[in-house]
């Protein structure tokens, strides 16, 4: 929870600066690239989150990896976060920034999990239904998770609708545990 509050403050400041500069899309793209680097490379992540590594060294590593691929604004955002000893919060800052951009643009990120791949017409229909219900542009990501057995889970922001077979089986198991046999 503390990381989320800290990340939200940094993200809000970054959002306001990027919006004022007219650089929301560019800033989001560059921050997302940094987030992807940290997510995809365990060694980089370990080094970047290590409190024994000095902030200038962390920033130097990013500078070399990005080779001019970040604006002064993004460099400033990352520098403030790292120099204040909050490097481990950077991925959450990036997620919170992206959420603020989505909110500003009237978009909602939705993940649909299913046991098997969903057909394109079904995905399109779900997108249309969700756009009508939420009154926002839906950015849909479909994910296959065989553990669900069947049905779907729909994650909208911080809400979830779960009609998966695995959840139904779990509910049945809980009910059976509470039944007293005479």
Please tell me about this protein's structure.
The mean pLDDT is 91. This protein is of the alpha+beta class. Strand 3 (152-156) and strand 4 form a beta hairpin. It is globular and about 70 Å long. Strands 2-1-3-4 form a 4-stranded mixed β-sheet. The protein folds into 2 domains: 2-103, Orthogonal Bundle (Peroxidase, domain 1), CATH 1.10.520.20; 107-178, Glutaredoxin (3-Layer(aba) Sandwich), CATH 3.40.30. It has 8 helices and 4 strands, in the order H-H-H-H-H-H-E-H-E-E-E-H. It has helices spanning 2-21, 24-40, 42-49, 55-66, 72-83, 90-105, 120-134, 165-178, and strands at residues 107-114, 137-144, 152-156, 159-162.
What key attributes describe this structure?
4 strands, alpha+beta, 8 helices, Glutaredoxin, 63% helix, 182 residues, Peroxidase, domain 1, 4-stranded mixed sheet
């Amino acid at each position: 929870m503390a990381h989320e509050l800290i990340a939200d403050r940094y993200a809000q400041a970054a959002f306001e600066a990027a919006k004022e500069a007219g650089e929301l899309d560019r800033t989001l793209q560059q921050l997302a690239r940094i987030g992807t680097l940290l997510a995809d490379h365990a060694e980089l992540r370990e080094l970047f989150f290590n409190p024994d590594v000095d902030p200038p060294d962390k920033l130097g590593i990013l500078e070399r990896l990005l080779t001019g691929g970040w604006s002064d604004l993004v460099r400033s955002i990352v520098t403030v976060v790292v120099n204040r000893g909050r490097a481990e919060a950077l991925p959450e800052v990036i997620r919170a920034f992206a959420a603020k951009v989505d909110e500003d643009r009237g978009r909602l990120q939705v993940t649909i999990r299913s046991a098997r791949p969903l057909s394109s017409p079904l995905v399109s229909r779900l997108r249309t239904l969700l756009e009508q219900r939420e009154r926002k542009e839906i950015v849909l990501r479909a994910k296959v998770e065989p553990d669900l057995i069947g049905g779907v889970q729909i994650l909208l922001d911080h809400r979830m609708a779960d009609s998966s077979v695995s959840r139904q089986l779990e509910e049945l198991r809980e009910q059976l545990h509470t039944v007293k046999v005479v």
